[in-house]
Amino acid sequence: MDFLVLGVGVFLIAVALRLFRDMSVPWTPGSGVEAVSTDPGRLPYYAARTTLRMFLGLAASILFTLVVGQWAAHSRRAEKVLVPMVDVLQSVRTLPRELDDAARMLRLTRWQRLWQLEVPAAMVPLIWNGMMSFGGAWFMLAASEVITVSGRDEALPGMGSFIAAATAEGQVGRLLLAGEHEHTRRAA
């Protein structure tokens, strides 16, 4: 079982490295970037590209949450500005006063307090909001992977641009195939 897990890990790292390499290709207007194909054989590659983008966005969101949360928790001035601002954007869950008192009584350092108290207390809401945001992002794929630059539509290779191309070409079968591929991928 260990070798299976190791093999899957190595495979996922190799796939991620390939996707990162493909994503770092420089772009210039009118460079003749390859159009998004509606070939069903490209679906796994497009799904991997989209999934990587979404996980990068999720990682950036978690990093933002930890940095802004710490800032607001430890600075009265920042709290007065950040908490109302974030409250408008997302529901805020605060640390219960008893846990704060316990951390003071145990004389936890800032680092200990962060990793032994605040992060574990925030995990359930953070994971829940991440799942809801990640799931909701699938509905915005077509709009987010086709961008307008210098008056021209440019499509990033991914599931959203595959769906947009299949819609533009009236290929209902390809749309259904993309939907089924995505449903199967999420269920796995």
Q: Could you give a short description of this structure?
A:
The protein is mainly α and 188 residues long.
How are the SSEs placed, and which strands pair?
Layout (H helix, E strand, L loop, with lengths): L1 H22 L19 H32 L1 H14 L7 H9 L4 H28 L3 H5 E4 L2 E4 L3 H10 L3 H16 L1
Helix pairs in contact: 2-3, 2-5, 7-8
Primary descriptors:
188 residues; mainly alpha; two-stranded antiparallel ribbon
Q: Care to describe what's here?
A:
- With 188 residues, the protein is mostly helical.
- It contains 8 helices and 2 strands; from the N terminus they run ααααααββαα.
- Strands 1-2 form a two-stranded antiparallel sheet.
- The model has no long low-confidence stretch (mean pLDDT 78).
Query: What order do the SSEs take from the amino end to the carboxyl end, as H and E?
Result: HHHHHHEEHH
The percent of residues in helical segments reads over 70%
* Proportion in β-strands: under 5%
Unreliable spans are none
Q: Kindly state the mean pLDDT as a whole number?
A: 78
Structural class: mainly alpha
Based on Cα principal axes, name the global outline: elongated
Order of strands across the main sheet: 1-2
- Please tell me how large the radius of gyration is: 21 Å
Summed up, the helix count is 8
Number of strands: 2
